[in-house]
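Internal ticket #5521
Category: modeling
Description: The requester needs a full-assembly model to guide mutagenesis choices. All entity lines are attached below as received. Residue total reported by intake: 420.
Assigned to: D.W.
Attached entities:
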Amino acid sequence: MVRQTMFVTCAVMIGAAQMACGGAAVPHAEMSTAQAAVRAAEVGGAPEYPQAELRLKHANEKIAEAESLIKEGANESAQRKLRQAESDAELALSLALKEQAKKDAAQALKRIKLLMEETKS
Amino acid sequence: MKAFASSRLGLSAVALVSLAALTACGKQAVPPPELMAARQAYEDAAAGPAAELAPAKLDTAKQALTEAENAWKEDPKAKEEETLVLAYIAERRALTSAAIGEAAKARAERIKLDEEYMELQAKRASMTAEELDRVRARLAIETNKAAQKEAELQKERAAREAAEKRLSAAVASLAEMASVKEEARGMVITLNGSVLFKTGEFQLLPIAKTKLDEVAKALSDQGYKKIVIEGHTDSRGSIKDNEKLSLLRATSVREHLVSQGLDANKIQAVGLAATRPLDTNDTPEGRANNRRVELIVNN
């Protein structure tokens, strides 16, 4: 009985939401996924590397576009923007990781060269 | 689906799918630039380190590309927003997998370099230890040599000091009959004539011999280049007598010193009579001071 009631309530709620927006549901899940991806990119150092920063900018712009689309009730388009934003943010993070790893490798190389020179002299 | 395991095969499969889409529609449809970019990005990623180091990410990218290709097949004119969005996402997924592959490669390189660094450091530390041992051994030899040299020097110094001590002791024992002065012409030992000889004689008194023995010993210890023995008289009596007496007295001293082992070739005796008085010849004391034998020692 309880499960049935819950099911019905959910169905009613989803229906109401869909009606309110005139079509597709508000893409809450996509929004939080995109926002989480942006935060991860920020924490991962994307703002420090220009190429990563550019992708992060794209992600933020797409999220902003999605927000205004949601306000207009264009939920389906908003959902697409959010999926794009998520892929941009993920790219931003991986570019930052790549740059960081390259930087670390260069430093390790420099360190070993220094030691070799010291050893020679 | 095993053909998809290889990225190149995967690509050709994708191409086939696109080709099938073209033929199905019977038109020469040009893929939208978003899809072309996605294909290129995937091709690049598959050729990079991602294939080996980030295969899961690369597979995700491939799936996204397949989705985009399928959407385009359904919608060859790309009228649907969704078709372009899928291509957009596929391109990003491909770029992401490429970046993750590069990152993994750089990380592996870094780990290798760090290991090499540790190895080199360890090698260097052990090499330094070896070098230190060598230096220590060398130092030990040098230190030994230095110690030996120092010991020899110490011995020489001690010998010289002993000789000097003996000389000063000899001179001190001569104090009542002699004085020692450093002058420009050398060290001058002045022996009082009355202690050495009886009046008018040139034979050494026994006490004088004893004292001269000490002087001879001290001089042979000390080392000398040349000794001049000068006989001096007061002004009484004839010059000729005085010259003769002064020379005889100087010669007596010389002979005694030679008999004690001093080198005869280095000792010269001269008689200077009263030519170089030390004091006045008008008083008995002055005259006593003028009667003397001087030893001028040159080192």
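Resolution: model delivered.
Comment from assignee: Residues 48 and 96 of chain A are 8 Å apart (CA to CA).
Ticket closed.
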